[in-house]
Each structure stands twice: as structure tokens, then as C-alpha cells.
Amino acid sequence: MRWIIFVGIAVGTVASFWAPPLDKFQNPDLARMIFFHLPCALLTSVFVMIQPYFSFRALRAREDARRWDARALACGEMAVLYGALTLMTGILFSKVQWGAWWSNDPRQTSFLFVMMILAAYLILREALPPGERRVRVAAAYSVFATLPTLFLIFVLPRIMFSLHPDVVRHGGFDRTYATIFLGMMLTMSLLAARVYRMRMRVEERIWNKEVRDAELDLGGDAAASRVVRPVSIHAEDRA
User: Fold this and answer.
1) Distance between CA atoms of residues 223 and 226, nearest Å
2) C-alpha triplet 81, 83, 89: angle, nearest 5°
3) Backbone torsion region of residue 189, taken as left when φ is above 0, otherwise alpha when ψ lies between -120 and 50, otherwise beta
4) Average model confidence (pLDDT) for the chain?
5) What would the pLDDT profile of 5-50 be if each residue is shown by its tens digit?
6) Exposed end of the chain (fewer CB within 10 Å): N or C?
7) What pLDDT sits at residue 224?
8) pLDDT-derived band of residue 196, with 50, 70 and 90 as boundaries?
9) What whole-number distance in Å separates Cα of residue 59 and Cα of residue 61?
10) Which of 119, 59, 110 lies closest to 84 in space, CA to CA?
11) CA distances from 70 to 80, 104, 131, 200 (A)
12) For residue 120, which of 148, 88, 86, 92 has the smallest C-alpha distance?
């Protein structure tokens, strides 16, 4: 699978140079960045929408709450990762297209707020000690942050005037751009799925280690209980 992903990204990157530049941009060649920027933005939205479901299941679960919490955490981390890539490519586009690293465009600003909400979830988790309380508080935050996050992603940029191009909603892709975009979207989705699975494997190993440590501790306590207690020896007995 990983070789398919690497080859797909390499082929997509090379194929992006076959796409013709768009004259309506300040730098026509920069239009090709959409093959990387838009998949990252869409994958961020996907993880943002999946995370509350896992968090809700963590709130409802009893014995399996930690497993659902780990899935929600992985989604939060993936959302921050792809969101950061989206923000960085967007800042580069803003500099070339509008002449400033930060143009205060509604879509750009609203996405920054989304990143703050996602980062606050991770910070909140680290501020709490491991245990049931961390799971419950983090899950509750994730659920209640769903509506503000979705509003900032899908609603606010569309009710305010934005210079940000919306080629997907207005059908601005020609056949060449659509083909390359779909290929990159598929490849980056496979990459995101693989990274997510790797993250869950890490959690599985952490759980297994904790179980083994607990078993060793129990064995140590049992062994210690069989040790004869030390008895003090008086001076006359030693003589």
C-alpha cells in the first residue's frame, strides 16, 4: 500500500505540470497548487466531521470508552496536520495572488479559527491527567465544538464576500484539472488512512504495554507478600 501511495503522489506531482496555467491568476502557474491545497482542505473537513462521532461514542461507552477516545484523538491530530498544510498553502497563494501573506479574507480567517478550535482540543487533553475524566471532558468538548467548526468551514465564508476562488462549487475544473485533482485526492486519502491506522497501532501497543506492566506489578506484589519480614536482632542474641 505504501508504495502505491508514494508512486501516486509522485505521478500526481509530475502530472500537475501538464496542467495548463490559468491566466486569471496573478501567477498563472500557481493555479496548480490546487492539486495539493484542495485535497488537504477536504480531508481536514472529513476528519473534523468524523471526530465528533467517535467522541460521542466515547461519552456513551462504558468499558470501551478509551478505544473510541483514541479514535477521536487520531482524527483530531489528522485534522490539525492537514489543516496546517491547508493553511500554509493558502498563505502562499495569498502572497502571490493578493500581495500579502495574510489578506484577512473571510475564508482564510475562518479557517484560522477552525485551527484554533482543533488545537484547543489537543491542548485540553494534555492539560488533564490520563483517566476517565480526560476522556469525558475531551469528548464533550469535541461534540460541542462541532457546530461552530462546521459553521466556520461551510457557512461563514459563503455569507460574506470572499476573494477566495471556489472552483468546486462553480464547476471551474476542466477535464485535465479534474483528472489530476481526483488522482491526487485519492492518493492523499489513502495516505491519510494509512497514517490514521499507524496512529491506532501506536495506541494498541501502548494499551498492551500497560496491560503487561499491570500484570508484572501484580506478580511483584504477590512475590513480595511471600518474602519473610525482617526481624530485628538484639545485641544479647548476637552475642
Assistant:
1) 5
2) 105
3) alpha
4) 83
5) 778 888 888 888 888 887 777 777 887 888 899 999 999 999 999 9
6) C
7) 46
8) very high
9) 6
10) 119
11) 15, 35, 12, 7
12) 148
Q: Hey, is 31 helix, strand or coil?
A: helix
Q: Extract the C-alpha cell encoding 214.
A: 499491570
What pTM was estimated for this model as a whole?
0.81
Give the type of residue at 6.
F
Look-up: residue for cell 470572499? 162
The residue among 110, 105, 143 whose CA lies nearest residue 41 is 110
Distance CA 28, CA 193 (A): 32
CB within 8 A of 51, min separation 6: which ones?
72, 75, 76, 79, 142
- Dist. CA 62–CA 54, nearest whole Å: 13
For residue 8 the three cell numbers come to 501516486
pLDDT in tens, 211-225: 787 777 665 554 444
In one-letter notation, the amino acid at residue 1 is M
Q: What is the largest CA-CA distance in the chain?
A: 104
Q: Let me know: does 134 contact 128? Beta carbons within 8 Å.
A: yes
Sign of the C-alpha dihedral computed for residues 128, 132, 137 and 141 taken in this order: positive
Instruction: Report yes or no: 75 and 54 within 8 Å, Cβ to Cβ.
Output: yes
